[in-house]
Write a structure and sequence with these properties.
With 262 residues, the protein is α/β, with parallel strands linked by helices. 43% of the residues lie in helices and 14% in strands. The longest helix is centred in the N-terminal third of the chain and has 21 residues, at 45-65. Residues 2-8 have low confidence and may be disordered.
């Protein structure tokens, strides 16, 4: 996986969602929507496009309503075209609808979210990585070599690790991520980006990031480029690939990756 490196930066999540959505649409435009998506077993490109557009519209509804508690239903008027040949234009319209809502949303507005950040900004940041990873899925399915901006990749690894402890309702195996104060470090080889996650008897979660995490001892460490680490935590790459360096307790790493599926 290749990476474009624009250096450390504060991420404009709204602009990044729009850019990733446009890249997704561009990849899918004119493609065979019956093509299988190997990184999403059982899905075709049509399924992937439908999923991405549905999530855009669902998040737009949540943000418009500024929901303050977990919604009881995910029913949304998707306005999905009857025929698949309209799916890609529908995805573009879905992204435009989400962008319109994002533009008028205060990221600091309190609202319910399933993750760590109980503000509207959670949903915009979540939308970014939902879109980015599935854009990569689409490009891989079509034989392209996806490029991931390094700053986005670093932010994406952070977003994943921060929210994973809250994902049990839809990622039940995370309940098995327990240990007697065992630590796993994720470390970027192409610049800043380090995270230390601690597994405790009662749960798990990131304990430190940045330079502090880099200096603390860890029972196991995974080192790789930021873009590769992002795709690793999302299960799009295997830790045994040559692009990763695995240090320390290999059983602990096996336990982590067997139970951290998002």
């Amino acid at each position: 996986m290749s990476t474009s490196d624009h250096g450390p930066a504060r991420i404009d999540h709204r602009a990044a969602v729009a850019a990733e959505s446009a890249r997704f649409v561009s990849a899918a435009k004119g493609a065979d929507l019956a093509a299988p998506v190997p990184s999403c077993p059982g899905w075709t490109l049509a399924d992937l496009v439908k999923h991405a557009g549905s999530v855009q519209r669902w998040f737009a509804v949540l943000l418009r309503q500024r929901i303050q508690e977990r919604p009881l239903s995910r029913d949304v008027d998707l306005r999905l075209p009857e025929h698949q040949d309209g799916y890609v234009d529908w995805l573009a319209a879905s992204a435009a609808e989400a962008a319109e809502v994002f533009a008028t949303t205060d990221s600091d507005a309190p609202m319910w979210a399933w993750g760590a950040d109980q503000h509207a900004g959670f949903w915009i940041r979540r939308m970014l990585f939902e879109t980015l990873v599935h854009r990569v899925d689409a490009e891989l399915a079509l034989g392209a070599d996806p490029v991931i901006d390094r700053a986005l990749a670093v932010d994406g690894v952070d977003e994943f690790l921060v929210n994973l402890p809250y994902a049990a309702p839809f990622a039940p195996k995370t309940a098995l991520l327990r240990g007697t104060d065992r630590t796993v470090r994720f470390s970027c080889t192409d610049g800043d980006g380090d995270w230390l996650v601690r597994l405790r008897p009662d749960g798990f979660g990131p304990e430190a990031n940045g330079p502090e995490a880099k200096e603390l001892p860890a029972d196991a460490t995974v080192r790789g480029a930021a873009a590769d680490l992002l795709l690793l935590v999302y299960g799009r790459l295997d830790r045994t690939a040559d692009r990763f360096e695995l240090l320390g307790d290999q059983e602990l790493l096996a336990h982590w990756f067997a139970n951290s599926e998002f």
